[in-house]
Amino acid sequence: MKRICVFAGSNVGACSDYVFHAQELGREIADNGFELVYGGSKVGLMGEVANKELEHGGKVIGVMPTGLFIAEKVHTSLTKLIEVKDMHERKATMSNLADAFIALPGGYGTFEELFEAVSWARLGIHKKPIGIFNIAGYYTPLLEMIDHAIKAGFVQEAHKKLFVAAYDSRSLIRKLKEFESPVFENK
User: Fold this and answer.
1) Which spans are transmembrane here (predicted)?
2) Predicted confidence (pLDDT) per residue in 114-136, tens digit
3) CB atoms within 10 A of CB 5
4) Is the model's pLDDT at 70 over the cut of 90?
5) Is 147 within a domain?
6) What span, in angstroms and rounded, lies between the C-alpha atoms of 187 and 55?
7) Which domain holds residue 66?
8) Is 11 a domain residue?
9) Is the pLDDT of residue 72 over 70?
10) pLDDT at position 155 over 90
């Protein structure tokens, strides 16, 4: 594992724990010698992770569609900024560069990125570790929804092995390092 792609909100959220733990994740990624791949913004939790990674001597690759440069306030101190034409190219580029994924708290975009990574893992498109950083229980309702989908017969119990979850960055990074991609039978 060389690079970790982080999906995160372009806002900092209403809980100070989100910022603290996003910064801790940036430090943890750098301290473990991993590069960060993310959406390229200098604001929100995205910016917090990137700033801490850079502060600790890490390398950061941002990927941003040209049309978002103003709305998301492109980070100008990155190791590398890749400019793409649209969101589809952004996600594909981030996925191609990454060896693992982590979802921090965020909104619709973060949810969509997380579920795309999980769906692609389920389909066998990639075998990369996926981590859910459950800061202050942010993802607990989502994890409960997945359990509900299992009980309702739409998700198989074994598919919970497609991702790992943790409440702190050190545990999450450890789980990603130890991750073994599950093998499933086709339908």
Assistant:
1) none
2) 999 999 999 999 999 999 999 99
3) 27
4) no
5) no
6) 47
7) 3-136+162-178
8) yes
9) no
10) yes
- Range list of H helices, 60-168: 87-97, 108-122, 140-151
CATH of the domain at 113: 3.40.50.450
Contact status, residue 131 vs residue 101, Cβ threshold 8 Å: yes
Q: Does the residue 157 lie in any domain?
A: no
Strand partners, 6: 102
Is 70 exceeded by the pLDDT of residue 71? no
Backbone angles phi, psi at 95, to 5 degrees: -65, -45
Give the residue from 29, 49, 52 showing the smallest Cα distance to 38. 49
pTM of the predicted protein model = 0.95
Average pLDDT of the residues in 65-90: 86
Domain contains 17: yes
Interval 150-170 mean pLDDT: 96
Question: How many distinct structural domains can be found in the chain?
Answer: 1
Long-range pairs for 139-144 at CB < 8 Å and ≥24 separation?
Answer: 139/103, 139/105, 139/165, 142/111
